[in-house]
Design brief:
single chain, alpha/beta, 15% strand
């Protein structure tokens, strides 16, 4: 493992004017890559700071800390007109402004994104919302489960009997990744043209963009991906979740013929090899494999299949993740004490053969301190 390289976004100044998960996670991605991120919150903090319990002994939510580690946090009441100049001073030296309120909210506060870009032509403004800045749903309230329902994701996720609510929240984290990616593209353009951008990121649009395969299948053949019946939604024996004798679970994803052959040979059922392409749903074959896994505890199957090239993996419980040798080898976790024990999952990338560095705790200071630091640091 080599020494840490220069942060990729060293010198980039980002204002994180967001709350809950998508915006803060998008800003943290940029922070992990070296950006200087200042989170602007209402007086007393954004809702997640003190409302998502149980709270730590310092009165702050650990969930808030994990999403905002590595940032500087300032409080500013923008409902007071006198504070508008202070916020504009900060914007004037920023490269990126990320906001995550309902469409029109920023304008009502006196910071219309269009006007901001006219005043600060190099500024990149990224608005993250549920359904986007236009259309009949633009002001409709929603959360992750609603966006997954609206885009058809829930229709194909779950058992034959009913959909399931995935965790962690798919659209929240996917939308954050989409926002960070688009901001980086806008920065690349700004570097050569000095032209900023206004980015309209919709959480619902982001997960809808994953549905091309399903929509094409439906329009071409009338086949709709369905829970428990599709090739990758529980209808195939080679791509399925099975329960073991001790009520644990394993995943088998031996879709390629060589992986399926390896699995069947390892468990002593070569007669299953030729049945891999039976019509879906493969009820009979699934039940046979199901009975096999139910015959022995999880450790038996791990000892037998871990060394077999067949896309087998036990379904880990949360407690198992911390001690997993691959997680340890990748230096993905950091244990902190802020002031209570907290585990962070770090930036999921190595850069120049360097592992991700632990994030410092959120740092609280005044807007004037940030402005002074940003004024004296070259962009």
């Amino acid at each position: 493992m080599s020494a840490d390289s220069t942060p990729l976004l060293d010198g980039l100044r980002v204002i994180d004017f967001t709350q809950y998960i998508p915006g803060p996670f998008a800003a943290q991605i940029l922070s992990d890559l070296g950006a200087n991120v200042v989170k602007v919150e209402r007086v007393g903090g954004e809702p997640m700071r003190t409302a998502f319990g149980p709270l730590d002994t310092d009165g702050i939510s650990p969930f808030y800390k994990t999403l905002n580690a590595g940032k500087t946090v300032v409080e500013l009441d923008l409902k007071i007109d006198a504070n508008h100049a202070t916020f504009r001073d900060l914007i004037s030296v920023a490269d990126v402004l990320i906001e995550s309120f309902r469409p029109g909210a920023l304008k009502r506060l006196g910071f219309d994104p269009v006007a901001l870009r006219q005043t600060y032509p190099k500024l990149i403004v990224c608005s993250i919302s549920g359904y986007g800045q236009n259309g009949p749903y633009r002001l409709k309230a929603g959360h992750d489960l609603n966006y997954l329902a609206y885009t058809g994701v829930l229709h194909s996720t779950g058992t034959i009997d009913e959909p399931i609510a995935p965790l962690p929240q798919i659209s929240d984290y996917a939308g954050a990744l989409q926002a960070a990616t688009t901001i980086l593209a806008a920065l690349l353009r700004a570097r050569s043209s000095n032209i900023g951008a206004y980015l309209d990121i919709s959480l619902a649009d982001t997960v809808l963009s994953w549905q091309s395969h399903a929509l094409t299948s439906m329009t071409r053949s009338g086949y709709s991906f369905s829970r428990g019946n599709g090739n990758e939604s529980g209808g195939c024996a080679d791509y399925h979740i099975y329960q073991t004798a001790d009520a644990k679970f394993v995943s088998l994803a031996a879709q390629e013929s060589m992986f399926w052959e390896n699995f069947c040979s390892a468990v002593g059922h070569q007669e299953w090899i030729s049945r891999q392409r039976e019509s879906v749903p493969q009820v009979a074959l699934i039940n046979e494999v199901k009975r096999l896994f139910e015959s022995q505890p999880l450790n038996h199957w791990c000892n037998l299949l871990d060394s077999i090239d067949c896309c087998f993996e036990p379904v880990l419980e949360t407690a198992d993740i911390i001690s997993h040798p691959q997680v340890i080898a990748r230096h993905l976790l950091s244990e902190n004490d802020w002031p209570d024990p907290l585990i962070q999952v770090l930036r999921p990338t190595w850069i120049d053969d360097s592992a991700p560095k632990p994030r410092p705790a959120p740092k609280y200071c005044s807007v004037s301190d940030v402005k002074t630091a940003w004024d004296t640091k070259p962009s």
